[in-house]
Amino acid sequence: MRRRWRWILALLIAIVMAAVLTIWLLLRGSLADLDGEHALPGLAAPVNVERDALGVVTITAGSQADAMRALGHVHAQERYFEMDLMRRSAAGELSALFGPVAIDTDKRMRVHRLRARTEAHLEQALGAEPQVVQAYVAGVNEGLADLSVRPWAYLLLRQSPQPWKASDSVLAGLAMYADLQDPGNQNELALARIREVVPPALYALLAHDGSAWDAPLQGEPRGDAVLPDATQLDLHALAGVPAAPAEETDAVGSNNFAVAGTLTADGRAIVADDMHLGLRAPSLWFRVRLRYPDPKAPGGQVDVSGFSLPGVPAVIVGSNGHVAWGFTNSYIDTADFRREAANAAVTVHEEHIAVAGQADVVLPVRETAWGPILHTHADGSGDALRWVAHLPGAVRMDFAGMARAGDLDQALKTADHAGIPAQNLVIGDRSGRIAWRLIGARPDRGPGCVPQGFNTLQNSADCAPWPIRSDAAPALVDPPGQRLWTANSRVVDDATLAVVGNAGYDLGARGQQIRNLLAIQDRFDEHDLLAIQLDDRAVFLQRWWGLLQRAAEHGNDPALKRLAAASGHWDARATADSTSYRIVRGFRGKVLDAVESALLAPAKARLGDDYLQPRLAQLEGVVWPMLEQRPANLLPPGVDSWDALLANAARELDADLGKQGLLQQRTWGERNVADICHPIARALPAFSRRWLCMPADQRPGDRDMPRVQGPSFGASQRMVVSPGHEADGIVHMPGGQSGHPLSPYWGAGHEDWVHGRPTPFLPGKAQHVMTLVPAR
Question: For residue 192, how many other CB atoms are within 10 A of its CB?
Answer without folding.
Answer: 22
